[in-house]
Amino acid sequence: xxxxxxxxxxxxxxxxxxxxxxxxxxxxxxxxxxxxxxxxxxxxxxxxxxxxxxxxxxxxxxxxxxxxxxxxxxxxxxxxxxxxxxxxxxxxxxxxxxxxxxxxxxxxxxxxxxxxxxxxxxxxxxxxxxxxxxxxxxxxxxxxxxxxxxxxxxxxxxxxxxxxxxxxxxxxxxxxxxxxxxxxxxxxxxxxxxxxxxxxxxxxxxxxxxxxxxxxxxxxxxxxxxxxxxxxxxxxxxxxxxxxxxxxxxxxxxxxxxxxxxxxxxxxxxxxxxxxxxxxxx
Length: 282
What we know:
Elements lengths: L12 H5 L12 H13 E5 L5 E8 L3 H10 L4 E8 L7 E8 L2 H10 L19 H12 E6 L2 E8 L2 H15 L14 E6 H11 L8 H11 L18 H9 L3 H8 L3 H12 L3
Antiparallel strand pairs: 1-2, 2-4, 3-4, 5-6, 6-7
């Protein structure tokens, strides 16, 4: 694999921060918060004897510009290479690989919460002050999706980490008002977090603000999502029902579901689903 020559518009620390005295991986700086979130989701930190090891990030070659930006934000020697190979997902896979070997840099990343080796279930948000929306955007760029399904916008993230799931759900609720209570799916033991329509619109506009560090293609899509308008005749989904003990008692005491729906002023289907869950102890 041959190392790719830096392009003429190399992304530098001074370009982003306006100073070359900033501390590496100061997570209060939006660009570093984003970079750290991306590394936690899609980076791999390895460790060997005699302080040997490396940090690697491998992404599709179409996104190589982001790796050059990471390289410019890192005041340690690193390399960017390309490779083409066959995988289980594609007959020909053309990827770009960023490699960082500095023991000092690896130690800093590990102390902030990037574990050595396998990490999918153990990663947590940093335990230092950090720019939260930039950090979460890094996760979504690495492991999430922004786009449209059946003409409606969405933003989603699949993660094995309970801490990351809880942090994104909590933050998204602050921004959009949309509450999520999730369990791991049975197929691959992941949390699948998704926001659609107005919630996706609000979250995309907040996370992908103008001038932020991001994958260009997702930034472009997010800008479209933020500008989305609901089609004429399409009604928003009614807000989630917050069932109380008193409402549950009224539901179970009603002679029929229709009586309960009339008393509680909710739809027949909502009352039917809730009654089934109560009777089956869910």
